[in-house]
Amino acid sequence: MEDEIFSFLTDTQKTRCIHLVAVHDKKFEIKDIDELILMEADMLSALQIGAGKPVYDAESNKKLMEAMRATRIPKFITEFSKNEAERLIKIREDYYKQMEKNK
User: Fold this and answer.
1) Averaged in consecutive runs of 10 residues, what is the pLDDT profile of the chain (103 residues)?
2) Number of domains composing the chain
3) In contact, 77 and 33? CB cutoff 8 Å
4) Other beta carbons within 10 Å of 49
5) Cα 17 from Cα 42, distance rounded (Å)
């Protein structure tokens, strides 16, 4: 945050950015709106299957999806993120089902 590119931010804004990065993955500490929205964005990014092969094997993916549904998605506050998470989870489930069929 000391780089010139961030010079337009106030010290208070820089401190908040640092805080958000520090807590965005601490699911039991997240409570403020900006913390929740950053967590939503981070989780949606984690759910996406890009052009490459996912890094999780089928069992690890299943555990990830169970954890997301139990501890992350219930904290989502925006309807967009709730809907997008379900859409992305469906894509992941379909992908892993297809992987199993292709074995």
Assistant:
1) 93 95 87 92 88 78 90 92 94 89 83
2) 1
3) yes
4) 15
5) 15
Per the CB < 8 A criterion, the answer to whether 37 and 77 are in contact is yes
**Closest to 75 (Cα-Cα) out of 22, 25, 15, 19:** 25
**Where do the H-state alpha helices sit in 1-103?**
11-23, 33-47, 58-67, 79-101
Write down the pLDDT at residue 51. 62
What is the distance, to the nearest Å, from the Cα of residue 34 to the centroid of all Cα atoms in its chain?
Answer: 14
Q: What is the pTM of this model?
A: 0.78
> Rounded distance, CA 21 to CA 15, Å?
10
Residue 64 structural domain: 4-101
Q: Comparing C-alpha atoms, which of 21, 28, 93, 84 is closest to residue 64?
A: 93
